[in-house]
User: Which sequence fits this backbone?
């Protein structure tokens, strides 16, 4: 494990991992939860529009959305690690309560920030209680291993996905977004076949996981798909000359809002029922 990867036991922060296209017109439940966890009107929020190909448009959209929710957000993004003052951005992160990464292309975030002082600041502040949210590409970049690219709506093969190194905020988890909408079950199965020590989590649009110390709460109108390969009966990637992937014994949980998944125990809980 890389020295940059955080152990859950060391972390007091929370991640809000959004599958993309979160509700921006109705109750805005996912964005509202981020604002609430980041301190409401008293919280300091910064936007990271690094992933977007249209960062100014993204900045205007989310500044307005957070204003509607009673919070003020400042954009401190950079589009290239060689541009802007990364030390200034890192210093800003040291003084905020919440960071929100917008969508776009995960490679843009990782190219600009992964080995930078900004990434170090994010990991240190997350360890000490920072709320970090990301939607679509802003969510994909969070784990140790990122699904950088891959075929949708296909059966799993050895070359279905292109993995790469991520920001290291999550360990032993694989993430995918726009999950049901883009038919990404096959590429998640390909990912967990390549990385069998990881739990795979696919997040629908307008769905999110609130992740804290290995506890995953589902919110939003979409579902979250959890692929647990902890007790596989068989997988054939270790066999030579195999390109089509065979997997057996992988557990699948499909969880709507109000359900909780615990990574360590692999258990599911209906939080609404327990609260009743």
Assistant:
């Amino acid at each position: 494990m890389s020295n940059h990867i955080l152990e859950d036991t060391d972390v007091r922060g929370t991640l809000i991992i959004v599958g993309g296209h979160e509700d921006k017109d109705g109750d805005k439940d996912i964005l509202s939860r981020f604002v609430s966890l980041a301190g409401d009107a008293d919280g300091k929020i910064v936007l990271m529009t690094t992933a977007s190909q249209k960062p100014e448009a993204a900045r205007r959209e989310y500044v307005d959305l957070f204003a509607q929710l009673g919070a003020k957000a400042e954009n401190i993004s950079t589009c290239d690690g060689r541009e802007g003052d990364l030390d200034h951005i890192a210093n800003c992160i040291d003084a905020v309560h919440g960071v929100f990464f917008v969508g776009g292309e995960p490679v843009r975030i990782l190219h600009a920030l992964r080995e930078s002082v900004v990434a170090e600041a994010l990991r240190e502040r997350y360890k000490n209680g920072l709320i970090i949210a990301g939607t679509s590409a802003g969510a994909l970049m969070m784990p140790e291993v990122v699904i950088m690219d891959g075929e949708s709506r296909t059966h799993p093969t050895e070359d279905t996905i292109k993995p790469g190194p991520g920001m290291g905020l999550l360990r032993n988890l694989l993430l995918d977004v726009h999950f049901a909408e883009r038919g990404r079950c096959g590429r998640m199965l390909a990912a967990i076949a390549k990385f069998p020590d990881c739990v795979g989590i696919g997040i629908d649009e307008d769905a999110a996981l609130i992740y804290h110390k290995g506890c995953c709460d589902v919110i939003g109108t979409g579902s979250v798909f959890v692929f647990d390969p902890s007790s596989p009966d068989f997988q054939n990637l270790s066999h030579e000359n195999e390109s089509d992937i065979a997997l057996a014994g992988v557990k699948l949980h499909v969880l709507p809002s109000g359900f909780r998944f615990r990574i360590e125990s692999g258990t599911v809980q209906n939080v609404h029922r327990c609260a009743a």
